[in-house]
Amino acid sequence: ELDCDIALAQNGKDALAIIQRQPVDLLLTDIRMPDMDGMELLKRTRAIDPYVTVVVMTAYGTIEQAVEAIKSGAYDFLTKPFEEQQMLHLLVKGLERNRLIRENQRLQQQMAARPSFQGMIGASPVMAKVFDTIQMLGRSDVTVLIRGESGTGKEMAARAIHALSRRRNREMVTVNCPALPENILESELFGYRKGAFTNATRDKAGLFTKAEGSTIFLDEIGDLSAPLQTKLLRVLQEKEIKPLGDNRTTTVDVRIMASTNQDLEQKIAERTFREDLYYRLNVAQLTLRPLRERREDIPLLVDHLLKKAARELGTDAKSISPRVLERFLAYRW
């Protein structure tokens, strides 16, 4: 059964009068009607409220009209004769689609009333929890492990935590661990002394030294080799680094944040990631969810990106059609 209020109309004109005086979530209409047919009712309804979900009913001989209705913005169509369960299933889906879009509208208005949080966009309960966690982590100096799929904004979250921390006056240093070969990554992280290897013609400070008093963000930590994992563990335990070719260690004051899109627990079980390093990194954990788990934020991101593009191109801000937004909401991000 459908949990909704139903308004009945004898014809298209009566239906239009109802839509004009009260909000409607879903319109179920025949195509062939006297005075005003379903196509005309569809167009007029969308002119009043483009977010109304419209389902059209059609006889077998008017499938072409049904296809035309879809192109004009109808959500779906039913071919007569149809079974009751078939209609109920379609109406449930249509009402859910409308609920989601209405909720997105509400969130969009809510977001318009306040700025984004440290450059991050979102008003869903999922993101509200993320923002609260970021604020909490910004007030501390603990090591943070940020987890999430590629594209979920792990580096943005790290920058937000840094921007709220006592170290914010110094630039955060970011290291893309998979982008550098192991031997180069080691010298980049810890630096080296003159003569440490063939081309070492002078001393070079590593990124940990450059991050002194600040934060270093190790992106995709799961790709670190075993030797580098051991050296990183020493930094976390002793707060010391040892440049290549140097017999002495140097104390550093650096906050470490790391990210991963991998299953570190599985890598520990496979003995490709050190368990002691995992626990040193995972003092505090922040997990970022993919868009498919917070679809309410999709319209906010679309609006943000359209406005950003308009500013960069020097053009008027554009809006997105309900049909495209519907496709975005259905996509498995």
Q: How many strand units?
A: 10
Give average pLDDT, whole number.
Answer: 88
Query: What is the H/E order?
Result: HEHEHEHHEHEHHEHEEEHHEHH
Largest sheet, strands/sense/barrel: 5 strands, parallel
Task: Note down, in words, how this protein is organized.
There is one protein chain. The chain has helices at residues 12-21, 38-48, 63-71, 84-112, 125-138, 154-163, 182-190, 207-210, 226-238, 264-269, 275-281, 298-313, 322-330, and strands at residues 26-30, 53-58, 76-79, 144-147, 173-176, 215-219, 240-241, 250-251, 255-260, 284-287. With 333 residues, it is α/β, with parallel strands linked by helices. It starts with 11 loop residues before the first helix and ends with a helix. Helix 5 (125-138) packs across helix 6.
Secondary-structure topology with pairs:
Layout: H1 12-21, E1 26-30, H2 38-48, E2 53-58, H3 63-71, E3 76-79, H4 84-112, H5 125-138, E4 144-147, H6 154-163, E5 173-176, H7 182-190, H8 207-210, E6 215-219, H9 226-238, E7 240-241, E8 250-251, E9 255-260, H10 264-269, H11 275-281, E10 284-287, H12 298-313, H13 322-330
Parallel strand pairs: 1-2, 2-3, 4-9, 4-10, 5-6, 6-9
Antiparallel strand pairs: 7-8
Helix pairs in contact: 1-2, 4-12, 5-6, 9-11
